[in-house]
Specification:
- The protein has about 210 residues and is an alpha+beta fold.
- It has one domain.
- Helix content is about 35%, strand content about 25%.
- The chain is built from six helices and nine strands, in the order H-E-E-E-H-E-E-H-E-E-H-E-E-H-H.
- The protein has a nine-stranded antiparallel beta sheet with strand order 1-2-3-4-9-8-5-7-6, sandwiched between helices.
- The N and C termini lie far apart (about 70 Å).
Length: about 210
């Protein structure tokens, strides 16, 4: 066997082995997160549709939510551990496992706002969009930046309602269009709390909308 063929086979084995291990690791993390979610999801709705999008994204949809939710979805975005170059690039960009909740409410919110950590990979470019809309910035501790279209006091109340110890917001967006609000946290931070506490926090946010 030539040296070139030996190197090719070794690289191929490494790539295939990494893919298998990375996929297995992500599936295990996703399944563990799904078990963790079971306690809290009933606060939003009873019937949930689950699907995996590759090995890095888990999507749960609730078509018939409990008031004040009409519909809702939870998306778990995991690091792309199964593809080494993508994983390295994602790591360099600061990507970590992310919890995303999107909800459509029975009644439209009375205000619009966006609170975000501009250093996160999932919020890049959003601060510029808020500035282009002419929204008013609020004074908050960094790295969070907050912009509101109107009702600045209401935006401050929403931020207070979203406080969860040890879980800094990645994003909290409120819109009059659907979905009416979106909340992002790092999954590793949330797992320090029971999921029932997390979903109670989400319901508390809706009381301010």
């Amino acid at each position: 066997m030539s040296p070139q063929l030996s190197i090719f086979l070794l690289v191929a084995l490494l790539v295939v082995g990494w893919f298998a291990l990375g996929t297995h690791f992500n599936v295990r993390k996703g399944e563990a997160a799904l078990r963790w979610l079971q306690e809290g999801l009933p606060q939003v709705g009873q019937k949930t549709t689950l699907r995996w999008l590759g090995s890095s994204v888990v999507e749960l949809k609730i078509q018939e939510g409990k008031p004040p939710f009409r519909t809702a979805e939870v998306v778990l975005v995991l690091e792309p551990r199964d593809v080494p170059p993508l994983w390295l690039l994602a790591r360099l960009r600061g990507r970590r496992d992310l919890f995303i909740f999107r909800g459509t409410l029975s009644n439209r919110p009375a205000l619009e706002m966006d609170a975000l950590d501009p250093t996160s990979w999932s919020t890049r470019g959003l601060e510029r969009k808020c500035e282009e809309r002419g929204w008013t910035p609020l004074s908050v501790p960094p790295p969070l930046v907050v912009y509101a279209r109107d009702n600045l006091q209401g935006a401050a109340r929403i931020l207070a309602a979203a406080e969860l110890p040890g879980c800094p917001l990645v994003r909290l967006a409120v819109r009059r269009t659907e979905p009416n609000f979106e909340v992002q946290w790092l999954l590793s931070h949330l797992r320090a709390h029971p999921s029932s506490t997390v979903f109670h926090t989400l319901r508390r946010i809706t009381e301010c909308l």
